[in-house]
């Protein structure tokens, strides 16, 4: 019973982390809108610390076109893209998606605090099924959007397969359904859980 309770607590912590904005972003105050001049400044230079930080800048369809062009031209120098609190909608993200999934070094994509709906999860999940797209991504933050309250199992599985070391990626997959079948090379996982359940009661 104690093991089950601990597993449930861990699952809840991981789920909360998935669906919440990071505390460091709160401290930096980036939920406040930034002026459009910030967008111009970012798009004029090379990615600082290999990061494209557009957080807090409301993006229009025309802005998204400019961002797409920038991502395509700077693809070899980008490992993090922060698009949190940019008022992104499903349509705007779909417009950006080809450029984003083509970034060879991208590991982290922050999309939290936008106007995305659960409908976009289908497109993201299908994209992630192709190992040639988002080849290096191990983290996509979709917290604090319109109605995204959970992440599909195939979405999490695809992310985990891109993670070089099992355990680096905090996901709700570890104690979710199908955990034995969807993690390659984890044959002993089911046996170890059976031992836990059969332990001293």
Automatic annotation (TrEMBL):
Transmembrane segments: none
Source domain of life: Eukaryota
Residues making up the signal peptide according to the UniProt record: none
InterPro entries named in the record: LRR_dom_sf (IPR032675)
Keyword Repeat assigned: yes
Keywords (A to Z) from UniProt: Leucine-rich repeat, Repeat
PANTHER family with a match to the protein in the record: LEUCINE RICH REPEAT CONTAINING 75A, LEUCINE-RICH REPEAT-CONTAINING PROTEIN 75A-LIKE ISOFORM X1
Family: Belongs to the LRRC75 family.
Protein name: LR75A protein
Native source organism of the sequence: Vidua macroura
């Amino acid at each position: 019973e104690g093991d089950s309770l601990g597993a449930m607590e861990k699952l809840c912590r991981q789920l909360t982390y998935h669906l919440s904005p990071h505390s460091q972003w709160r401290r930096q105050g980036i939920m406040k809108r930034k002026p459009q001049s910030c967008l111009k400044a970012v798009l004029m230079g090379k990615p600082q610390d290999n990061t494209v930080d557009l957080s807090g800048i409301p993006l229009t369809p025309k802005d998204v076109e400019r961002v797409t062009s920038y991502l395509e031209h700077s693809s070899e120098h980008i490992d993090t893209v922060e698009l949190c609190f940019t008022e992104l909608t499903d349509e705007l993200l779909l417009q950006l998606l080809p450029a984003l999934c083509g970034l060879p070094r991208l590991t982290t994509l922050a999309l939290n605090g936008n106007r995305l709906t659960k409908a976009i999860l289908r497109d993201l999940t299908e994209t992630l099924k192709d190992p040639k797209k988002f080849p290096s991504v191990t983290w996509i933050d979709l917290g604090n959007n319109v109605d995204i309250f959970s992440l599909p199992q195939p979405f999490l599985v695809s992310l985990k397969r891109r993670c070089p070391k099992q355990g680096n990626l905090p996901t709700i997959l570890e104690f979710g359904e199908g955990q034995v079948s969807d993690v390659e090379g984890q044959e002993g996982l089911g046996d170890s859980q059976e031992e836990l359940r059969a332990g001293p009661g």
